[in-house]
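Q: What would this chain look like folded?
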Amino acid sequence: MKMNLRYVPPILISLILIAAHVSFGILKSYEAIALAIGASVATELVMGRLYWGQWPNIASGYTSGISVAILVRSPMLWPFALCSVMSIMSKYVLRVKGRHIWNPSNFGLCALFFLAPFAVAPLNTQWGNNLWPMLIIWGIGLITIWRVKRAHITLTYIAAFLVLAFVRSYFTGDSFLAEAAPITGPMYQLFALFMITDPKTTVSSKTGEIVVTVIIAIVELFLRLGEVVYAPFYALFIVGPIAMLIDIYWTDRDTAPAEDTQETAPSDAAPEAAPVAGAAA
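A: My prediction, written as C-alpha cells:
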C-alpha cells in the first residue's frame, strides 16, 4: 500500500524530534511540545474552515507545530503557542494572487525572534560524536525528497553552506570544521529538509530554485559574519518572499486578471514544509 505523501513530512520530522531528544534531551517540557502542536493544529482547523469553508488536513499543522516545538527554546510556554498561531495564520493572511509567500514555520519563528528576543532563543545543537542519528535522519530525509524531486534544493544548500564555510573560516579565523559543524545539527536538518524545500513557497522552475537557494546561503553568510544568531531563518525570511513575488508576477504576467485573483481551496493542504511536492516546516 502506497503512503500518501502528505504524511511523509510529519513522520520524518517526528523522527528528527525523537533522535534529537534521545541524543540530547532537547525537549525541556512535554507541555511545550503539546501546546505548540495543539495550537498549530487548532489554528489550521479554524482558519481552514473560515477561509476555505472546509476542514483542512491536519498534517500541515502538525508539521509546523512540531517544528516550533523543536526550534524554540524558552522557559515559558506562551512563546510556543504564539509562534504556532503566527505560523499558521501567515499562510492564510499574507497571500499574493492566491499564494502565501513565506514558509509558515519560518515566518512564525522570525516574527517571534524579532518581537520577543527577551523570551526565546533558537535550538543550537550539533550531533557531536553521535553520528548515527544524524546519518539516519539525513539518509531518510534525502531519499524521501529525492523521490519527490526536491533533493536538488537541499543538496544545493548543503554544497553552498560547505563552500561558504571556507569563506567564513577565512574571515573569522576559525577552522573549516568549526564553521561547517552547524550543518550536522537538527536545526539545520529541519531548515534544509523542510523549510527551503517547501513546494508552496519556492519558485516554479528547477533552475530558479537552485539560484534562490544559493542566494539564501550567501545572505546567510553575511548574517553569520555579522554574528546574527538566527542567520538561516532570517536569510530565508528575506530572500524567499522576494523570489516568490518575482516568480508570481513573472509567470502570471500574461494571465487574465480574473484568473489572477481567483482563489481556490488548497488540496490541502499538502504540508507547507517540504519533502512533499515532491516544515516547516
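The longest strand covers residues 72-73.
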